[in-house]
Amino acid sequence: MNLKHLTDQTLLADTKSLVRQEHALLAKILWHLKEVDGRRLYSELKYGSLFDYCTKELGYSESSAQRRIIAARALAQFPEIAPKIESGTLTLATVALVVSEFKDPAEKREMFIKVEGLSRTKAVALIDEIKDRPKTYTVTMDEETFKLWQEMQQLGIDLKKVVAQAKKTKLNTPSKRAVFQRDQVCQQCGSIHRLEFDHRKPKGLGGDNTPANLRVLCRSCNQRKGIAAGLIRSGGGGALNRK
Ligand SMILES: [Zn+2]
């Protein structure tokens, strides 16, 4: 499928429309799985469980099958979540989370309302808060950095000092430090991940390193700027980090 001929506007509109259809289809599939489950129809096909049917007959991965089965059974018990799955405000991940964290049906029902519209990460944070658990932090790093981090922990190195040093060498020019203090987050999308400095007027066109010409952008927004200006070819993937 080649979509290169689409305008940016059409591409965005089509993507949104397809995702809407995907959510509606997902809800339909869950209703069907619930019914197959109720009739134990997988047994007719010589599968010992709905899970076997989902992975071997339907070709879902184990984790995809697991999430769908949990959601299909939640749907059987709490039909009121169907429109939320259909509209995409309740995801398979948050449904599975609520089911695994709460045993009491009344609590589950209440939580399905509370986590509506939340990402899995935000739902985890909310549940931690409700259950009065210590806060957990998710930090994304590449494998090399992770190994280094583990080594430093084992050696008992003060991580605060390392971070301070990394910042010092990276932001050694006074203007960049000032820009970072001023902007703090991506000036396009508000992300705090993979931040970079962007020259509003490119260096090649005479742009300088003064704070007025510098701003903080995340990697994806910086790349988008290049693609929109025709300086970078589109393709490949941007950052997966959420804001
Ligand atoms: Zn950004």
Q: Would you write up a description of this structure?
A:
Helix content is 56%, strand content 4%. By secondary structure, the protein is mainly alpha-helical. The protein has two domains: 16-130, no CATH class; 143-228, DNA Binding (I), subunit A, CATH 1.10.30. The longest helix is centred in the N-terminal third of the chain and has 31 residues, at 8-38. The site of zinc ion has 8 residues, from strand 2 and helix 11.
For the structure shown, list the relevant keywords.
11 helices; 2 domains; two-stranded antiparallel sheet; binds zinc ion
Count structural domains. Answer: 2
User: What distance lies between the first and last C-alpha atoms, to the nearest angstrom?
Assistant: 30 Å
Content-based structural category: mainly alpha
Would you tell me the overall average pLDDT?
Answer: 87
Q: What is the β-strand count?
A: 2
Spell out the blueprint of helices and strands.
Blueprint: H1 8-38, H2 50-57, H3 62-77, H4 82-87, H5 92-101, H6 105-114, H7 120-130, H8 143-155, H9 159-170, H10 174-183, E1 195-199, E2 214-218, H11 219-228
Antiparallel strand pairs: 1-2
Helix pairs in contact: 1-3, 2-3, 3-5, 5-7
Zinc ion binds at residues 186, 188-189, 191, 217-218, 220-221.
What would you say about this model in short?
The protein is mainly α and 243 residues long.
